[in-house]
């Protein structure tokens, strides 16, 4: 495997971490294409812990984002601070509410959002070296603060989230669940995934397209 992709996680579970299906489908497609990968996550406490059966916050419980991400990555995960862009050809950020709660404060701050400093630092090298960056589901909302204004992205057709992207100086493009939006100038690829998907197969189509395009851009 000559190409290597960094995958950035935000915990484990759709309501307080990384979306498990989106992450798994991303890793599956990378492996099918013969592309190596390594998962990274910040070594911080989660914003909160959610009972995924009731979708209610579990008061008084704390979990660590890196340790929770290890569940999803089968233990093969490194602290985000160790991510060196020189060692990878691209980076992908799956979705899940952890993106809006742990990697940023979008869930509470909206278009006044701030992005985790460690995430900004990790992506500087990819941006400077024009290496492909893929984001899915809610994670494209990070782009105006994480990368720059004026970059075309999609979260599907959610009016509140797309409006926040526009308010932060981003460019939102409506997109179907099975498609992608590619900003060739800035080397950014996005897809709605579970912002729209009602079945895992729907999410898979768009995610596989995203990974395929990232692979083409790496070449």
UniProtKB/TrEMBL annotation:
Keywords assigned: Lyase
InterPro entries linked: Class_I_gatase-like (IPR029062), ElbB (IPR026041)
GO molecular function terms attached to this record: lyase activity
Domain of life: Bacteria
Known catalytic reactions: glyoxal + H2O = glycolate + H(+)
CDD domains in the cross-refs: GATase1_ES1
The protein's role, per its UniProt record: Displays glyoxalase activity, catalyzing the conversion of glyoxal to glycolate.
Family: Belongs to the peptidase C56 family.
Protein name: Glyoxalase
Organism from which the protein derives: Vreelandella sedimenti
Source species taxonomy: Bacteria, Pseudomonadati, Pseudomonadota, Gammaproteobacteria, Oceanospirillales
């Amino acid at each position: 495997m000559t190409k290597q992709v960094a995958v950035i996680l935000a915990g484990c579970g759709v309501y307080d971490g990384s979306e498990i299906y989106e992450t798994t489908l991303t890793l599956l497609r990378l492996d099918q294409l013969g592309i190596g990968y390594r998962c990274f996550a910040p070594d911080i406490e989660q914003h909160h812990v959610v009972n995924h059966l009731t979708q209610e916050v579990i008061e008084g419980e704390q979990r660590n984002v890196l340790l929770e991400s290890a569940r999803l990555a089968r233990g093969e995960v490194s602290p985000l601070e160790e991510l060196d862009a020189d060692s990878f050809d691209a980076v992908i950020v799956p979705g899940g509410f952890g993106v809006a709660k742990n990697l940023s404060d979008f869930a509470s701050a909206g278009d006044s959002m701030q992005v985790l400093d460690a995430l900004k630092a990790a992506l500087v090298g990819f941006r400077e070296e024009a290496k492909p960056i893929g984001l899915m589901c809610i994670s494209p909302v990070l782009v105006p603060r994480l990368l720059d204004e004026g970059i075309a992205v999609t979260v599907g057709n959610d009016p509140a989230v797309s409006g926040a992207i526009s308010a932060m100086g981003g460019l939102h493009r409506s997109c179907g669940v099975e498609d992608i939006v590619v900003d060739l100038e800035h080397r950014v690829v996005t897809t709605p995934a579970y912002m729209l998907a009602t079945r895992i197969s729907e999410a898979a189509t768009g995610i596989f397209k995203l990974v395929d395009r990232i692979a083409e851009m790496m070449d």
